């Protein structure tokens, strides 16, 4: 067997694994939180979207982030990042887990705004008056909320 044959065989096997994995995920048999936004049709405008547990205490950085979040983010994203129907999604949701929306995504969202792509609440505008350090604190706060709610 030559090296070209081995390489082609490896690519074919890899392709089958990817197709199989995607097929497995499409069947809905995956474990954990859903990446699908929840049905919010029964909520009134302004209602929290997610029901969450809040950690008994936050790290120092997350405490600073909570203060910044409460001033700049909670009007839309709700208290403790639970979202607000008609305004903005919850950040304590599988969609915002670190492997899907990394910490830099939060920095970029604050700096540039975000085009709506997971939720139906419209585009998020840039947020004025937050430093990169403020956003690091906000991310720490959101990540600690996420971990407490099983989103890693």
The average pLDDT score comes to 87
CATH homology superfamily of the largest domain: Cytochrome c-like domain
Q: Count every helix, treating DSSP H or I runs of 4 or more residues as helices.
A: 5
Overall CATH architecture of the largest domain: Orthogonal Bundle
Distance, first to last CA: 44 Å
Q: How would you describe the shape? A: globular
User: Any idea how many domains?
Assistant: 2
CATH class of the largest domain: Mainly Alpha
Strand composition percent: under 5%
> What about the largest sheet?
none
The SS-based structural class is mainly alpha
The gyration radius over C-alpha positions equals 19 Å
* Extended strand count: 0
**Unreliable stretches covering 5 or more consecutive residues:** 23-32
What percent of the residues sit in helical stretches (DSSP H or I)?
40-55%
- The fold-level CATH name of the largest domain is Cytochrome Bc1 Complex, Chain D, domain 2
SSE ordering: HHHHH
Describe the structure.
With 152 residues, the chain is mainly α. The protein has 2 domains: 1-31; 60-148, Cytochrome Bc1 Complex, Chain D, domain 2 (Orthogonal Bundle). The protein has helices at 3-26, 60-72, 74-77, 103-112, 132-148. 24% of the residues are buried. Residues 23-32 have low confidence and may be disordered.
């Amino acid at each position: 067997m030559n090296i070209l044959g081995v390489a082609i065989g490896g690519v074919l096997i890899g392709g089958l694994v990817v197709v199989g994995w995607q097929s497995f995920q499409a069947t809905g048999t995956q474990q954990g939180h859903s990446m699908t936004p929840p049905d919010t049709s029964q909520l009134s405008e302004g209602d929290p979207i997610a029901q969450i547990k809040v950690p008994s205490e936050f790290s120092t950085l997350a405490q600073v982030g909570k203060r910044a979040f409460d001033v700049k983010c909670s009007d839309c994203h709700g208290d403790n990042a639970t979202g607000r129907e008609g305004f903005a999604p919850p950040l304590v949701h599988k969609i915002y887990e670190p492997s899907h929306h990394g910490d830099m995504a939060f920095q970029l969202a604050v700096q540039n705004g975000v085009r709506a792509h997971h939720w139906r609440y419209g585009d998020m505008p840039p947020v004025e008056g937050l430093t990169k350090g403020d956003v690091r604190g906000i991310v720490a706060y959101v990540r600690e909320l996420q971990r407490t709610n099983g989103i890693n």
